Predict the structure.
Amino acid sequence: MRQTAMTQTINSVFLDQEQLYDRDFLLWTEDIARKLRVKDFDHLDLENLTEEIEALGRSQKKELKSRLTTLLEHLLKRLYVEMPQEYNGWERTIREQRRQIFLELTDSPSLKNIWDEAFNLAWQLSLKDVCEEYPNVSFHDVWLFSRDIDSMLEIKFWEIN
């Protein structure tokens, strides 16, 4: 007898937690959420739940570093690359990355605790990328401006000169 998709879904609910996690992640998350809501702590898949929670934290850190890298790349281009026809696009990207970083920091203020680490990594990556993209442009090896969060999210560094 052939099982329908509905029957297969219902049957998968009865798989043990680890099998469910491996076979249907969405269903696993719904099952975990349901168990948490009803305080059924004895039947939680704690191993996979712990891994997923840790992954969420890593994901937020990665997002901050990625956004900061893109921000710095475009700031470097805007500051040092003489291509006025590109300024508007670079400034739009700068505004969007600033907005997204602000939202990330608003949602998770503890990300501010890794700002210096994130900045250092983002600086290395962005400098390497723009140097490869524009080999005839001389970029400074160090960031010459304020690197604190407020400055990075607000100042139009290209207007300082």
